[in-house]
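Task 17 of the worksheet. Students: predict the tertiary structure of the chain below and write it out as structure tokens. Keep your answer in the requested format; marks are given for formatting as well as content.
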Amino acid sequence: MVIEFLTFRVAPDDQEGWRAADERTWTRFLQMQTGFIRKEVWIDPSRVDRVHVVIWWEDEKSWTSIPPAAMKAVDQAMGAWQRPSTMHRFDA
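Model answer:
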């Protein structure tokens, strides 16, 4: 199992809108991908402007087989809610 751990900087006042956009774009897209297990969104109470997105994949092949063009299209679908992220990978 591979875990994708993304961290976004989202102002607390924007988090409700960002999470709604993330749900209707990224979450729905990921749910259609082979090997996707689940996704959770976590807020760091010590740094309330940080949103962590944790995505579980069956294996690295499933995670990395998504075409970059498809990921770019979904990212663009976030529109004004798109934010840069940092990514960490963990093996479970």
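Marker's comment: The chain has a mean pLDDT of 96. The longest strand covers residues 2-9.
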